[in-house]
Specification:
Blueprint: E1 2-7, E2 38-39, E3 48-54, H1 57-64, E4 72-79, H2 84-92, E5 94-96, E6 99-101, E7 105-109, E8 130-137, H3 144-151, E9 156-164, E10 167-168, E11 177-181
Parallel strand pairs: 3-9
Antiparallel strand pairs: 1-3, 1-11, 2-3, 4-8, 4-9, 5-6, 7-8, 9-10
Length: 185
């Protein structure tokens, strides 16, 4: 089985919260997904959007393992005015503390009109512009998008994954999911 899920902001990308001190945090278990499915990759707690889940370990590996170079597409709201030189630096590559990283594609896009409001909202600053970028990566290191945009001087304010390979978020509200494929019987 393959499931597309829109992971909400603030939800852990796991089924249990292993932190025992402090208040309980939202997890994938709160989304009432079918039993026996596991995420194919991760999204940080403060990132939103498409998460694929499956009960097929080989399929999870094909989706998540960097060797398979599944393109992942993100909408990124950044603080500051994204100029062509910023976008070029993202595609030419930046040096992160764990090595070089580059986007397959980086382009400035209009603010998405279909996007749901975030709770809590992204901070608004009258004196500082923000820009939306569509960024495509073919690897997925820890907090890579955030580190890359920061490296070019554009801190990430909001991060939404909208596609993994041919699978798209299309029409799923936060917390909703749909079955993309059933097991062959």
């Amino acid at each position: 089985m393959l499931i597309a899920c829109n992971k909400p902001y603030g939800t852990l990308c796991q089924f249990t919260d292993e932190r025992h001190d402090g208040p309980a945090r939202a997890t994938l278990a709160d989304l009432h997904l079918p039993s026996g499915v596991y995420p194919a990759g991760r999204l940080d707690r403060d990132s939103e959007g498409l998460l694929l889940l499956s009960d097929d370990g080989a399929l999870i590996a094909r989706i998540a393992h960097p060797r398979h170079k599944q393109p992942k597409t993100y909408l990124v709201q950044v603080e500051g005015e994204a100029r062509p030189d910023h976008l070029s630096r993202l595609t030419e590559g930046v040096l992160l503390n764990d090595g070089p990283a580059r986007a397959v594609r980086a382009e400035r896009v209009a603010p998405p009109t279909w996007l749901w409001p975030r709770d809590p909202p992204v901070r608004f600053r009258k004196t500082v512009a923000d820009t939306w970028i569509e960024l495509v990566l073919d690897e997925g290191r820890n907090r890579q998008v955030r580190r890359m945009t920061a490296a070019v001087g554009l801190p990430t304010l909001r991060l939404i994954r909208i596609a993994i390979g041919r699978h798209r978020l299309d029409g799923l509200a936060p917390g909703q999911w749909r079955i993309l494929a059933q097991p062959h019987t």
